[in-house]
Queue: 3 jobs
Job 1
Amino acid sequence: MRFYRFYSSVLLICAIMFNACHKHDSVNEGDVSIEIISPREGQQFRRGEQVPIRAKITSPATLHGWAIEIRKKSNGQILFVEDSHDHKKSFTLEKSWENTMTERTDLILEVFAQIDHDGKKTSKQVTFYALP
């Protein structure tokens, strides 16, 4: 009888662990909405200014996280990265990055939605400018 209880407990714990991060309802990339509120396309920020990063990600099924990248358009150098592994149908992102560029620089903000644990994701991007 003890063995049966022990075995049942182990099975229950395993079921909980595997269920904690499993494949949820299937999501197609086209079903995910990413709205970048700030910065706007073509917006300019002077050196020392805070660049507000605001975005909304929504999906009819559970997503597996999000990521934000700011990088130089010329060479892809990443200047800012933030991400989160979370399971929700929607995310509201509110972050900021300080412009430290010493010359005019074309930048790309890209917001990613992680669709599954197999690396499937979708994204949206805007170009904005850092001024000295």
Job 2
Amino acid sequence: MTLDTLRARTRGIVVFAPTPFIEEGGRTRVDVEGLQRNIEFLVQGDIPVVVVCGGVGELWDLSAEEHRLVIETTARQAAGRMVVFAGVYGDTAASITRSRQAETAGADGVLLFPDDEAVPTAEALVDYYTRVGRAIGIGMMPFRADELVDLAVLQRLAALPNVVALKEERERMDEFQEIVLALGDQLAIVGAGDAFAPSYLVLGGGGLACSFANFLPDLYTQMWAAGQQGDFAQVMAIHNTLVPLNQLRRRFGLRLIKAALELSGLAGGPCRDNPPRLNPGERAELAEALGRFTPVAP
């Protein structure tokens, strides 16, 4: 896929996928078959972009081999039907190594998490992306969660050939609007967070980074379509149905996403660095909320 094609296709609903695990003998391993089912479910739900091995994908708890396995499995299952980004973290040298490995494993692009200590200034950040970009032939999606990355820095990043999208994590709508107005014609500005989806759509975001779309893809593609048609009454009608899930997400975090996948007949499993799975009462709460949208497993 050329970078121009990737830039054009990296729009719409961007699903951040958990890494499903299986417990065996007190340890966990990647559920490869479950990951294949989850990815196929997204493809069949017309999701255009998936990000694996991100924060929701427990990037920091994956070994190098598991990181490669998840990317390779996802890329093979997607088979060009969906754009695949992979999370990568570290200093410049480590990010180059891991980005090259992601490219070899079949990723179309990387979502980069630079090490804050190794990349402490805006100038160092631009150098980081420049050097990583020169080392790979796939796309890059910078991750903006820090005020260090202001509009001037983003304009420099957007000028790099490999940068095809930006994940905006600051949850500042005034800043998001400024970025869309300045750069929205060049690359997709992806608003992050299920709770703020309508705001990102109203302000012209080129994508929505969603977790609930892992198990409710149709709902999110409908919301996206309504937003593109300017039907914001429909956007809000859809979004209002998600309030109970957003409330539960604040309580349970990633455990909710994995439990919801299981209740939807997909693969979730435990979280490696989180509290235990939802207890029966919590799971029943989630099943009741989820049952409004889709049949749930017993």
Job 3
Amino acid sequence: MGIYEEITSNKRKSYLLVFFFMAFVVFIGLIIGVYWGNQYFGIILAVIVGMVYFLFSYYSGAQSILTMSGAKEATKPEYTYLINTVEGLSIAAGLPKVPKVYIIDDSALNAFATGRDPNNSYVCVTTGLLKKMNRQELEGVIAHELSHIKNYDIRVMMLAAVMVGITVLLSDFLLRSFLWGGKDRNREGNQLTFILIIMGLVLAVLSPFIGELMKLAISRKREFLADASGALLTRYPKGLADALKKIKNDPDPLVDKANKATAHLFISTPFRHDGKKSTWFQSLFSTHPDINLRIRRLEEM
């Protein structure tokens, strides 16, 4: 599959996943509303909770992630080469504004992008990655991260994280509603209500789990898209492929301040792994697609 076909395919699949994610959240709100005797109540509740979550994440999420990761802003002359690389590739990518560059003092080989849109974005790399990558490999990694920004992946993943938060809150509210009872006195003896309660209980328990799986699926799709877009930007897929090989063979891939909330942002999983090929079931819980598959796709471009 060519680069343009890869980009088109991954965009279509990602938007489809986000659509089902949003529909799933609205459905939870609808179940809450039906149980309490007014379906609009549940939908409005889902919208209000979603707006609060989104507004906080939209305006404060990026800075919170950088602070949580222990990132510091890169300055000249110490990081002149890195800053110039980001500036040059940002111009080539047609970004309206050059992202701010941050550094994490960590020996692991990794990087990530965050922000709310191309006008408010950040690129962050570890000191370990800077030391180990040659020019083409570093450009491949930076192009990958800038592609996340250009393709609005940073907003998509923010939306996915917000949706997971909403499903957790709404599921908890739904479960408590069943435990403490609703306001509709006509439910007793109603067979349909009994079925609704059973479905609702199952949904309340499984919703956070399903929501997390959907977020991870979106994350994996966006990584493939950023690989393809990054290769298109540099016109040299081998650079990113070679960088991923070094990242794959990193003897200490653990980014000390990474956590499950930020893991999906990195170019590769920031946790330790045993190097064994993951099973299909294990891959469902992975923030990133198999790195060997990513390398192979790049080498075939």
